[in-house]
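# nightly structure sweep
# worker-07 picked up a monomer target from the shared queue
# config: single-sequence mode, recycle default, output format = structure tokens
# input follows
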Amino acid sequence: MASSSSPINSIFNVFQFHKVDRNIYDKLIAHGTEPGVARNVVALFIWLDTIGLDVLSYLDVHASNSFAFFRLVAEAESVLDCLRCDAPPRDFALAIPVIASLSDQPIDLGFFYFNRHDAAKRIAGVLDGAGRVFFDDTLYSSFLRYEAACRRNSAPLPEELARTYELGATATTSEDQRSLFLTFSKGFPLTKEEIEAYFREKWGDCVEKVAVQRPAAGSPVGPLYGKVVFTRDGYAGLVLNDTKVYKFAINGKQVWARQFEQKRSRN
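# output follows
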């Protein structure tokens, strides 16, 4: 039970509101799902809930039915794959029967591809907003300890849980956290304009800036690498989906994306 002195919009209240979401996340982790994938799946479920698909209640009802749970998770991963696709899916009619059954209107993967701009924006918003709280294992451990202490006796709300959380706020992240390092095939360089246009067509206004290598003067070889900075690091998480390297193509040219890591100078 929450302390009567806890702030209305506190970190504690975020955990209370997202208890089901965190439980789903923990179940995915317990069954070997990579953390980044699990976060994306839960963020997708939250977005689906906001557009009228009562996914979270379905999962709560079927909490003890592992088959039903992971069938829905598999469909969620199909939706996430669809959001990363460069063309509409071909076999979308029967790909997500459980998710479709939760809607009172016909819905398939084509719906998610058509609405991929809004979907990516909302999912990234969850990842960079409340998700930064309820996916945080350290804060969650503090939340569980406090709840256990309250069941035994009254307990003061820990400082880290009493901190104010602004509803709808997104975390301030560094440029590096919002960036992907891109490498190109030799002889198949890409321009800043091509890279920016690719991601804007895919997910809308998601790019802050793009940079590409400047080859040495007179070099016959074009740029071999570049960097894309997103407006939110949730977009970078959607691209990688917890893989070290994600391979895709821009205008028929192969690209390999990985998390950007700033090289540190040696003393």
